[in-house]
Amino acid sequence: xxxxxxxxxxxxxxxxxxxxxDEKWEIARxxxxxxxxxxxxxxxxSVNYQLxxxxxxxxxxxxxxxxxxxxxxxxxxxxYVTANWSKLxxxxxxxxxxxxxxxxxLLSSADGVTSPEG
Length: 118
Known about the structure:
The chain is α+β, with helices and mostly antiparallel strands. 28% of the residues lie in helices and 24% in strands.
């Protein structure tokens, strides 16, 4: 369980929009929530919340190969690396990247895959 505090920017039956420092947090409301008091715009509140997975994509080669999809492994890993290249590589060596996301694909363009930078 995590906690965030801040000022209510907006509130509805579906969500609470909370200003926490310099960020706005959109927190979904659910049927099991407990509200102690009434929520109004401008109120300072504290929210206990959980992170719940909606979709989990396995990017390791062994897990995807067991599904018989080696081409899918390369495509999925390439898409992930391309989309997150700047976050993944900031201050990291190739060995560190390799440990985090598995082998970085250095396939030739003849294989139909190019490096994340083009």
